[in-house]
Design a protein that fits this description.
3 helices, 162 residues, 5-stranded antiparallel sheet
Length: 162
């Protein structure tokens, strides 16, 4: 699961950290770009020593560069971090997007309640936290199954904390 619970003291300090799933690790990223370059240059071996090689080579290099740029952009866009922190009776949700300003929400833990919107939200099984007069989303970048598990764990945690 792309989230972890960290408990320093169960009654006063707990942190839930969420991040998007990475299906392609950095080593796979490097291997993918190297494989694209290697397979892209295979047709050029027969053209070594000819002028046609120089006509085709820029397109192959452009293809490898576009692949690298697209994968790197995907990594930057997925650089999201959410942190739900409990300090005593205060529950604080901090959302750090890939681009833009960090957003924060806090509430007394006794008034916080999780809700799952099976239908009607932007995603199926959309998880929100309500309290302090506001409703905020949590874990919207997780998969549907991960949001279901997150909701049950979050609901159990908040019931136990109250």
């Amino acid at each position: 699961m792309p989230y972890t619970w960290t408990v320093d003291t169960p009654d006063t300090h707990t942190v839930l950290t969420l991040w998007p799933h990475r299906s392609l690790p950095r080593r796979g990223f490097a291997a993918m770009v190297m494989m694209a370059f290697t397979l892209g240059t295979v047709p050029l071996y027969g053209l070594l020593g000819s002028v046609v090689l120089w006509g085709i080579l820029p397109f192959i290099l452009l293809m490898v560069g576009a692949l690298w740029y697209g994968l790197e952009r995907s990594y930057r866009d997925g650089d999201i971090l959410e942190e739900l922190r409990r300090d005593g009776d205060i529950l604080t949700l901090t959302h750090r997007p890939a681009r833009g300003q960090t957003q924060s929400w806090d509430c007394n833990i006794y008034w916080a309640r999780p809700e799952m919107h099976v239908h009607g939200g932007p995603l199926p099984h959309y998880v929100t936290l309500t309290g302090n007069g506001r409703t905020v989303e949590i874990g919207s970048f997780l998969s549907e199954d991960e949001r279901k598990v997150l909701f049950t764990e979050l609901d159990d945690y908040l019931k136990q904390a109250k």
